[in-house]
Write a structure and sequence with these properties.
By secondary structure, the protein is an alpha+beta fold. It folds into two domains: 8-125, Aminotransferase class 4, branched-chain amino acid transferase, N-terminal domain (D-amino Acid Aminotransferase, Chain A, domain 1); 133-294, D-amino Acid Aminotransferase, Chain A, domain 2 (Alpha-Beta Barrel). The chain has nine helices and 17 strands. It has helices at residues 28-32, 54-67, 76-89, 133-138, 165-177, 213-216, 222-233, 245-249, 281-294, and strands spanning 8-11, 14-17, 36-37, 40-45, 48-52, 95-104, 118-125, 140-144, 182-186, 192-195, 199-204, 207-210, 238-240, 253-258, 262-269, 272-273, 305-307. Strands 8, 9, 10, 11, 12, 13, 14, 15 and 16 form a nine-stranded mixed β-sheet that branches. It is globular, with a radius of gyration of 19 Å. The mean pLDDT is 97. It binds ligand PPE. Ligand PPE is lined by residues 39, 168, 194, 197-199, 218-219, 221-224, 257-260. Ligand PPE binds at residues 39, 168, 194, 197-199, 218-219, 221-224, 257-260.
């Protein structure tokens, strides 16, 4: 997905012109993948542009930093304000994707990260449908990857660690080269974990099921959490249950969730159609309510919006 440059990137408290937002080639995080990040979206609402679940994303960023023992020199409130500021400074009134990053900077080398300086940047740019408009409307073709998710005792899966995404990239390339849209990864125990950058749900006999994030070695998705709340409020029963691959093949419906991807129907898994291969009624209802929610059209979820 190409990036559309905007005017400024927030770097350690300053608005830096887009083209000058550079780091040294000996930046620690470039060598060891020792950064943590977030993916956040802002949407146009009737009350102006608003960041969706800003506090939860910022708190998760801090939690990821805690796992890596990074001492972030800003508070949650300051980082929330930085994100609102970058949306305003770039005039992103129609919404955007935001990428806050905490990384270890230039000045130290070697595997001990503790003496490194901790830097923070926040970029924002307009970004369309991550898995394409066709995927959003008609569903995506998934492949179960030969690459497993990390064992949480090897690389912590509860934290969004930059270096950990090599695993997702390997799975993504494998799926794309084989002609699929996206990959599903199994955990070390062979159960379904998540996709390369999304959580996964199935619908079976009217019940909505998603794997329990920690045990499945998946990220606890904020979109997953929003969808669970939305689905419960629509009257659906939700369960956290371990899933195996045939649960996907035999589901009535399946969909994936993520900030970048949003809510995307799954049309097939390993060439087995999910249901009849078309987005099912439950998926469509949840997708519709999710988009209405992020766009500020559902009053009961207005608490999830931070206006820039
Ligand atoms: N699992 C993974 C591995 C993941 O990276 C994401 C977000 C999710 C689940 C869903 O989490 P949430 O966004 O809180 O619902 N992936 C981010 C980065 C994607 C990328 O390609 O880069 C995102 O969606 O912004």
């Amino acid at each position: 997905m190409p990036i559309t440059p905007t005017q400024y990137i927030w770097m350690d408290g300053e608005m830096v012109p887009w083209d000058q937002a550079r780091v040294h080639v000996l930046t620690h995080s470039l060598h060891y993948g020792s950064g943590v990040f977030e993916g956040v979206r802002a949407y146009k609402t009737p009350q102006g542009v608003a960041i969706f679940r800003l506090r939860e994303h910022t708190e998760r960023l801090m939690a990821s930093a805690k796992v890596l023992m990074m001492d972030v020199p800003y508070s949650v409130e300051e980082l929330m304000e930085a994100q609102l500021e970058i949306v305003r400074a770039n005039g992103l009134v129609d919404g955007c994707y935001l990428r806050p990053l905490v990384y270890l900077g230039y000045g130290e080398m070697g595997l001990n990260p503790l003496p490194c300086t901790v830097n923070v940047s926040v970029a924002a740019w307009p970004w369309g449908a991550y898995l394409g408009d066709d995927g959003l409307n008609n569903g995506v073709r998934m492949k179960i990857s030969s690459w497993h998710r990390h064992d949480p005792n090897a690389v912590p899966t509860a934290a969004k660690i930059t270096g950990a995404y090599v695993n997702s990239s390997l799975a993504k390339v494998e799926a794309l080269k084989a002609g699929y849209d996206e990959a599903i990864m199994l955990g070390g125990d062979g159960r379904i974990s998540e996709c390369t950058g999304e959580n996964l749900f199935i619908v079976r006999d009217g019940v909505i099921i998603t794997p329990p994030s920690s045990e499945a070695g998946a990220l606890k998705g904020i979109t997953q959490d929003s969808v669970i709340t939305i689905a419960r409020d629509l009257g659906y029963e939700i369960r956290h249950e371990a899933l195996i691959r045939t649960d996907l093949y035999l589901a009535d419906e399946a969909f994936l969730t993520g900030t970048a991807a949003e809510v995307v129907p799954i049309s097939s898994v390993d060439d087995r159609l999910v249901g009849d291969g078309k987005p099912g009624p439950v998926t469509k209802e949840i997708q519709k309510q999710y988009f209405a929610t992020v766009r500020g059209e559902v009053v009961r979820y207005h608490d999830w919006l931070s206006h820039a």
